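Pilot study result, target chain (208 residues):
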Amino acid sequence: MILKNVKQSTGAKIRLPEPAPLPKTFYTRDDVVTIGRELLGKMLCTRVNGGLAKAIITETEAYAGIEDRASHAFGGRRTARNEPMYAEGGVAYVYLCYGIHHLFNVVTGAAGTPDAVLIRAAIPAEGEKLMQRRRGKAKVDKTLMAGPGSVSQALGISTRLTGASLQSDRIWIEDAGIEPSDITTGPRVGVDYAGDDAARPYRFILTL
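Predicted structure:
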């Protein structure tokens, strides 16, 4: 039903691939901006505490490692928190924002190149009741996963998953068969401290 609704609202072409994690080679490419764009329409999946949940990614932000002032790894900064960013692409980087929100990022590129893509928004595809319960929502609506913190909460993602392989049975990303036809590009959110880098057009939105 969700894929039918996406097709009707966007005109996006949809095929139905066999459910399987994206290959490692999707993540290890050296262009984090392209990967950030291509993650739109993919399916972020979790199996946490026995509950399966899947959501279509609708908004992303790319962070270009040591050369990007908005990145946690700018200038080669390396800490216990951001260490997963330095892994080979295809792992999760989850950090706590303001001591409250668990934010999920996809690590990309070669080992030692700390590029990552923040997943900012999504829409439910499977396990809606589970997501609704996790979010404490009276009903499933457009606010269910309208920000990066709510995406993680709905899917049961926390810092316990930081460093986890995206080929694992706990968290992975699938090809949902959606070919986005309406993508908006613009500057990232909340990175004014990054100077000129704040204006980089590294935010991608799939309009639904």
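One observation from the pilot: Residues 157 and 167 are 15 Å apart (CA to CA). A full batch analysis is planned for the follow-on phase.
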